Amino acid sequence: MAKKKFKSESKRLLDLMINSIYTHKEIFLRELISNANDAIDKLYYLSLKDENITFNRDNFYIRLTPDKEARTLTITDTGIGMSREELEDNLGTIAKSGSFAFKKENDMEQDVDIIGQFGVGFYSAFMVADCVTVKSKAYGSEEAYVWTSKGADGYEIDTCDKAETGTEIILYLKADTEDEHYSEFLETYRLSELVKKYSDYIKYPIKMLTEKSRPKEGTAEEGKTPEYETYYEDETLNSMIPIWRKNKNELKQEDYDQFYQDKFHDFEKPLKTIHTSADGAVSYTALLFLPARAPYDYYTKEFQRGLQLYSNGVLIMDKCADLLPDYFGFVKGLVDSADLSLNISREMLQHDRQLKTIAAHIKKKIKNELLNMLNNDRANYEKLYESFGRPLKFGVYDNFGMEKDFLKDLILFYSSSEKKLVSLDEYAKRMKEEQKYIYYACGEDTAKIDKLPQTELVKEKGYEILYLTEDVDEFVIKILGSYEEKEFKSVSASDLGLKSEEEAKAEKETKEENKDLFDFMKEALGDKVKEVKASTRLKSHPVCISSVGEVSLEMEKVLNAMPNNQKIHADRALEINISHPVFETIKTLYQTDKEKLKKYTGVLYDSALLIEGLPIEDPVAFSNHVCDLI
Ligand code: ADP
Fold first, then answer.
1. Per-residue pLDDT at 319
2. In 10 A of CB 287, how many CB atoms?
């Protein structure tokens, strides 16, 4: 039989993994046991749909067989098995292409556990074995096949004899070295310890013939020194109780962390664990985790949200999307309910009343936990928000704001006065008595926004401003409209609501006084602006641009950056600071040199655009004008 080569990327990954990635070699056992568990699950699924298969629990188990003489450890399962093609497909390629690139790109630490993450679990066997043999007989097949590999060079497949359906993996353990003592994986006490540590909740029995000792019959009588004999007994090493069905008091956070990291392939501990049960109209247990970081594919189309769904401890669906709204799609975990029927199909699930009730509970539960974190564990909430604030904001905006009231208290924005992220509730509580609006300003980053001339007067009034830096932010604000009856107001809006009656009167007078001048300037700018006017918001800057009407300047930027470029244009006003020396010059020019005033107006307009981060139409003309003036 010719030796087949692993795909080249697989080979590199395999080398990398065997030699460096993972320092705890013992996890190979966990990986192989999980695979065996999945294989039995698959057969179990089949039995749900096929009346011809009877699933007798006693026939399903995983067995560990260490053989000290042969220096082998065999892991046997009575699961679904693999056909020749499956052996080739499943064990011949490591992971899908993205994984290796991902590790390189992200420059992950040396001992990060990427094994489980990328479905290269099986290959962890090569961390402890220099030769691996997989004998497998697929369910419903007469033939069995044996796959053999000595690591990175490739593998061979041949036919073999195997009576029972299922898979048998034989690891030929590496020779011990000074640093690594592979023989430990032949010791029954060590294997049993590892099963307890990593695979206790596996729901099929993990059996092992264990060496025991007992006093020889007749030798334990009084007055005699008992003689001992060794005997072997089949022992079940795991408790088989899934962690979520255990009593909360019996569990430590480490147990949850271990379970989470193992099951959901995360190399970080969860930020928060939610273990909750309900009894009532529907009864269920949910074990939910809030991850510390977004998985690498979170923002791609490949990402599938959803919770695992169990019926009485038996997995019936791996990613049940109906249990989580999109905006909580980052939550990992599972739901177990005895009220769900086992052989329910995906289509039926969508209409299942029980499931809907559970989903509604879970949604509320997650929100409450998030609020709780926001108020009592701020640092962690901010960490979470950094990764998942975006989906929460999209949640506010989605479906015409259907969920905006539910989500609004979870949203944070950077605050001008607090210099950190704040919630709308915190803002509202700090508002000054006479303050009419919740102010916000948009821009690329908080440092740039902080320098915007438009923010000056609002700040001077002592009002807090929310800095919006993400494209979705202003849409969120627009769809919310108000918070606790206080409207949102952009610092670029034409009326900021800051004026007292006197100020408004004074403004009107200046406007009238300078009407001709402003009209002239508007004329000089043509269609570029709706109006030129005296500003009531500027303090030290000579000019700024504000938007007139619904579309703001930031929205213009966002909308025009979208693929179906609609060429949206926000109506603008050029505002002049009449307390600035520039204004005196303008006034004089209006009397003495109208041509020069035209140029000045252009330059002022362009510089206002630049401050706003908007492109200027003709940079060359702008530069020429500036040079002329100099
Ligand atoms: P993962 O389990 O993450 O998909 P693995 O490399 O561990 O990745 O396994 C690859 C595939 O090989 C599995 O998805 C499964 O289809 C198959 N496989 C592995 N072990 C077994 C087994 N004991 N019985 C049946 N199929 C198996």
1. 87
2. 25
